[in-house]
Write a structure and sequence with these properties.
With about 375 residues, the protein is of the alpha/beta class. It folds into two domains: about 250 residues, 3-Layer(aba) Sandwich (Rossmann fold), CATH 3.40.50; about 110 residues, CBS-domain (Roll), CATH 3.10.580.10. It is built from 17 helices and 17 strands. It has a six-stranded mixed β-sheet, with helices on both faces. Strand 7, helix 8 and strand 8 form a beta-alpha-beta unit. Helix 5 crosses helix 7 and helix 12 packs across helix 16. The chain binds adenosine-5'-triphosphate (ATP). Adenosine-5'-triphosphate binds next to helix 1. InterPro entries: AAA+_ATPase, ABC_transporter-like_ATP-bd, ABC_transporter-like_CS, CBS_dom_sf, P-loop_NTPase.
Length: about 375
């Protein structure tokens, strides 16, 4: 979709910003460009919409050499989101959002309807926020308007330069998640510049790690964290890259432990006997539909009244995560609820539980799988169990 071929940029004062850039971004892929200040990320991005012209090499969008496309026409196909948002202060949120459709000649009614739709999509009620002016919004809300505006004319390509840098860390994480959800439906081809490796890892299908003026490694987040291509990349991703890997490793069914299960309406003493036989200290409790209710301790069951049921003694357990969620989410649930395990569900169906030991194992298998260039399922458990 976007292809850089030996692209270089030397500014008129002789500064070489980037040199020999060759990489490709697939259709619907989100690629993050990450690196320290001044390494050439913004220059790379601005060459895609011809706000900056390369001094060597060429860039293709959809197979077309962009130097042959009229810049104005090119920019209509490319949404652009920048850190300071760049909203027009004297125009309402709705008018700001409708800017590009209006520019490309949509009728006023259609442009406004589209703007309302987009505001809704980024989580801003158009009735409440549409008539406001940018100064009447929070930083995070302004950022969402920036995203809505960039998407308004439905461009296939989106360029985002530090889009979440101006908001506080909590709002930033929320905006990142919202954008990922949005991206899973709109599937734009996205180049996102950031200097924050956490953000790059979280957001990118692939990451380009920049050294001075060139890409040191271009790969999936797991591979960059697991097998940094150069000592520079290893330093840049940081010594705690194992922790960062938690954010990009998905929970898979084979990571889970299957504890004993009891139903709410089962007789308590019978379950106590069963758990005793297994040497288990607790069981997960499901309701009649097989959905997670909570857990029950073997000790409590042993002390139950003669006709008591599991339901009388079961405790609620709200710590759960969906299968496929990152390990980090499971870890954070455990910490937040001070629990030794967290339930993993597939929709409403209970699949199993993740424990700290299993989490560690999943992480080790993921590191191992990346080092060997195979899928995590192909790494045997016993190769990492003692690690
Ligand atoms: N107009 C210009 N004239 C001369 N040099 C420039 C110009 N714009 C950028 N540069 C230089 O080119 C290099 C790359 O800049 P660029 O803005 O692409 O880096 P960056 O990685 O995006 O940095 P940051 O994270 O600080 O925004 C820097 O050394 C910068 O000083």
């Amino acid at each position: 979709m976007i292809r850089f071929e030996q692209v270089g940029k030397v500014y008129p004062d002789g500064t070489s910003a980037v040199d020999g850039l060759t990489f490709e971004v697939g259709r619907g892929e989100l690629v993050t460009l990450v690196g320290p200040s001044g390494c050439g990320k913004t220059t790379t991005m601005m060459m895609v919409n011809r706000l900056i012209e390369p001094t060597s090499g060429r860039i293709l969008v959809d197979g077309e050499d962009i130097s042959t496309i009229d810049p104005v026409r090119l920019r209509r196909r490319i949404g652009y989101v920048i850190q300071q948002v760049g909203l027009f202060p004297h125009r309402t949120v709705l008018d700001n959002t409708a800017t590009v459709p209006a520019l490309v000649g949509w009728k006023r009614g259609r442009a406004r309807r589209r703007a309302e739709e987009l505001l809704d999509l980024v989580g801003l009620d158009p009735k409440t926020y549409g008539p406001r002016y940018p100064a009447q919004l929070s930083g995070g809300q302004r950022q969402r308007v920036g995203v809505a505006r960039a998407l308004a004319a439905d461009p296939p390509v989106l360029l985002m330069d530090e889009p979440f840098a101006a908001v506080d860390p909590v709002a930033r994480e929320r905006l990142q998640n919202e954008f990922l959800t949005l991206q899973s439906t709109v599937r734009k081809t996205v180049l996102l510049v950031t200097h924050d490796i956490e953000e790059a890892v979280r957001m990118g299908d692939r990451i380009a790690v920049y050294g001075k003026g060139r890409i040191e490694q271009y790969d999936r987040p797991g591979a960059v964290l697991g097998t940094p291509a150069t000592p520079y990349v290893a330093r840049f991703v940081g010594a705690d890259r194992g922790l960062k890997r938690l954010s990009v490793t998905a929970i898979e069914p084979e990571d889970l432990e299957e504890p004993p299960i009891a139903r709410l309406d089962e007789p308590a003493r019978a379950v106590a006997g069963r758990l005793g036989g297994l040497g288990a200290r607790w069981a997960v409790v499901l309701n009649a539909e097989g959905e997670l209710h909570g857990w029950v301790a073997a000790d409590a069951l042993r002390g139950a009244e003669e006709h008591g049921t599991v339901g009388d003694l079961a405790r609620r357990m709200d710590a759960w995560v969906p299968v496929g969620a990152p390990l980090k989410q499971a870890f954070s649930e455990m910490l937040q609820r001070d629990a030794g395990w967290v339930a993993v569900l597939d929709g409403a169906r209970f699949l199993g539980v993740l424990t700290p030991a299993k989490l560690h194992e999943a992480l080790r298998r993921s590191v191992d799988a990346d080092a060997r260039g195979v899928g995590r399922g192909e790494v045997p458990f016993d190769s990492v169990a003692d690690a």
